[in-house]
Amino acid sequence: MAFVFLLILVALVLFATEVVPVDVTAIAVMVALLAVEPVTASLADLGLLAGPLYVLRQPGTDVSPLVQGLSGFASTATITVLAMFILSDGVQRTGIVQLLGAKLATLTGDSETKQLGATVGLVGPISGFINNTAAVAILLPMVTDIAHEGKISPSKLLLPLSYASMFGGMLTLIGTSTNILASQLSAELLGRPFSMFEFTQLGVVVTIVGTAYLLTVGRWLVPGRIQAREDLTDEFEMADYLTEVVVREDSPIVGQTVQEALEATDLDVDVVQLVRDRRTFLEPLGPKVVQAGDVFALRTDRDTLVELLDLDGLDVVPDAVDDAELERASDRQNLVELVVAPGSSLVGETLASSNFRQRYDASVLALRRGRELVRQRMDRVRLKVGDTLLVQATVDSIDRLDGNRDFIVAQEVERPDYRESKIPVAVGIVAAVVGVAALTQVHIVVSALAGALAMVLTGCLRPQELYDAVQWDVIFLLAGVIPLGIALQVTGGADLIADLFVLAAPGLPAILVLGGMYVVTAVLTNIISNNASVVLMIPVAVEAARQLGVNAFAFVLAVTFAASTAFMTPVGYQTNLLVYGPGGYRFTDYLKVGAPLQAVFAVVTTLGIAFFWGLAPS
């Protein structure tokens, strides 16, 4: 037990600090559990342990510790979540969500109330049936554009977008991966999995309360960090970092390529575009041979510019560089914001180590992380989920970036590849998956896998798109933390924590203890992964309920709802990270807006569970 508690402590620290990605931490936990099993068994056989510590051997079963340790990969929860990612992607590629968003955008105008109501009213129900992270990623460009067109700060809409996707995910079993994992744990511990609409009635109540909060108190508390823009260069405060220079005839760089000229100096400068004979060129600029009279747009600071002018024979062009200047290379937008998406291959990389410029034929002008703006030495910054890059590129490059799962383009761009003819098919497949799982004895994993297969067979998805559809970091996170929950249960760790929890609330009514379980889980899930919170807290909740002689299923539901409502930190939930950069938020904004909402939900959810399911033992 001591080893398991030590492992949990280390895992919690790593989950909270993200020194390594959370999925890597989860796999490390699984490996540690597998590695310690044969060692402790051998010590017990030699009589060096008072009692064998089989951390993964279920009492009374013949299942080997190795199978238990790897059970996360074969878990019905893991496979169901994988299938749901595929279903969500099939729906996304039809463009139906974008069409719905566009319809609503025409109705909102410049009214903040209408915009906020449309944002919350659209993402909530959608998140009940497709992955809520995907829903936010799809709607983020639309919401940002609606705000700017209506002269409203996008910050006023993006945090509500994230929050609404979270409580909307509590409408059905398939709304979040957390619900699916909690259902499996409930089945194993209580013999009672969640049905498709098990908690929909409470989800509707929570959604109504959350929507009312966001339209009233939340509207007042959410800050307008990003001003409605006239252009992106103003939004990223680029006035002192963008300059145009002209190459003099006596310049030593005439005849060199742009790449050679840049490599000859260690100064922090990027060439953004080249104007020659009234033609504008974007990336790739490295092979271009410098000629006298060339006009280069540069990203650099004033001090570096002075050094550059002295070295390379350049003169400053006095006119300011703005969006119009940077976008004259084409008749379509070539200056955009890119958000680093969950599961992106660039997470942990720098612009230099990822060869961003050469890889994507795009120039990064600035980087925003929350309120922090980075416009110097950006090539040294390790990228995180939610980082927002101000990028200039050709139309073709932007189209490729928009189709790349590593990024979310934070403005609406033309997408001619939506499969709109497949909308009825994709919606019908999802409806069939939900209907079969809800109305028959077919397990959700079977229904979801059949739906994923149908997406491919009907052409909603191409076979090569299947692997891109899955958020593999979530899959490996689930596979890694499930054995930790088993270890916590079989070693008696969950019993011990439950004992302490019950002792800390002596003589309190069961409903207050239920509320306490919600609050503890909510605090934990704002620090670590929501899936890890469920794995750790549901065994504790079940044992605490048994000791109190009350309905254990009610306690499981409290943990499930609390784990999916991480409002108080940007790191508590992936959707919070997605809007962190585009909204320009501060860390404390989440606490200021999310803490009152979390407190309201603690009361509403606790009372709702007591009303719908009761606390008497079943």
TrEMBL record:
InterPro entries linked: Cit_transptr-like_dom, DASS-Related_Transporters, Na/sul_symport_CS, RCK_C, RCK_C_sf
Name of this chain's protein: SLC13 family permease
Membrane topology: Multi-pass membrane protein
One Pfam family, short name: CitMHS
Keywords noted in UniProt: Membrane, Repeat, Transmembrane, Transmembrane helix, Transport
TM stretches of this protein: 26-54, 66-87, 161-182, 202-222, 425-457, 469-488, 500-521, 552-573, 593-616
Organism: Haloarcula onubensis
Compartments (UniProt record): Membrane
SUPFAM superfamilies: TrkA C-terminal domain-like
PROSITE patterns: NA_SULFATE, RCK_C
